[in-house]
Amino acid sequence: MESSSPSEDPIASVADKQAITEAAQDPATPARVAAAPAATRKLVYHAEVRVKVADLDRANARMDSLTRTYGAYVSDASETRQDGERQHQMKIRVVPSRFHAMLGSLNGLGALVSKTLGTDDVTAEHADVSARLGTKRALEQRYVALLSQAKKVSDILEIEEKLAEVRGDIESTESRLKTLNDLVAYSTITLTYFQELPLNAPDAPVLSFGSRLVQSFYDGWELLTGLVLALVTAWPLLLGGALGLWGLRAWRQRRRQQTAATSA
């Protein structure tokens, strides 16, 4: 009697399918992506501009008008005042077709201090992320199909675990693709404009009569202690002067006595 062939192991089938899918996703053997035509390249434009203005409030009003004119929007803004300077910083998002025109309009805000422009080509990264996302979605569908066919609890748990991992990868890949699409769709201008403020000297404090009286007493005490310390410091000079004066008086007295004796 012929022996019956063993039935197919579902876990082995899952492992085989997973191995095939992981081989397709292996970063060491990425799929070749053909060079995109110039018209379809994914370019990210960005610039950093710093401008000195005469009136910050007028510059704010001017920027509100410019963003409306070019159909742009401000994704982030902040204003600070410190070290004799009032500064406003904003991040402007504008479509690439109006990027350079808006940059030119910023020169009218005031005196240009610095301007830095850059372009990033993300065509290859965008194609790679899109391909990976398609592969992960296909893998998700395979796990869903296997899950519907699984009978054992252990098989179901293992497939659900793998499915959760794949769906987590899909979410992160979709997030990166969304970020790339946003950077390509809207160029970024980081604008900083500032106004120098005059440094006013602080007013002298107004002292009351009582405060002035206390201050005068303190000044007098300082003067008295200063004189005492000066006398103590100059004691060699005082001693020398006293000895010199005593010697001079003694000499004059002897001279008068000699003169009186000669006259007699």
What is the β-strand count? 5
Oligomer: single chain
Helix share bin: 55-70%
Average pLDDT, all residues: 81
- What is the approximate shape? elongated
Largest β-sheet summary: 5 strands, mixed
Spatial strand arrangement across the major sheet: 2-3-5-1-4
CA-atom Rg in angstroms: 46 Å
Number of helices: 7
Q: What distance lies between the first and last C-alpha atoms, to the nearest angstrom?
A: 180 Å
Structural class: alpha+beta
Domain DUF4349: 41-248
Transmembrane segments: 223-248
Pfam families: DUF4349
Keywords: Coiled coil, Membrane, Transmembrane, Transmembrane helix
Kindly list the characteristics that best describe this protein.
7 helices; 264 residues; 57% helix; disordered N terminus; single chain; five-stranded mixed beta sheet; alpha+beta
How would you summarize what this structure contains?
By secondary structure, the chain is of the alpha+beta class. It has helices spanning 10-25, 56-69, 99-105, 123-149, 153-185, 209-233, 235-263, and strands at residues 43-52, 73-82, 85-94, 111-121, 187-196. The protein has a domain at 10-24 and 40-199.
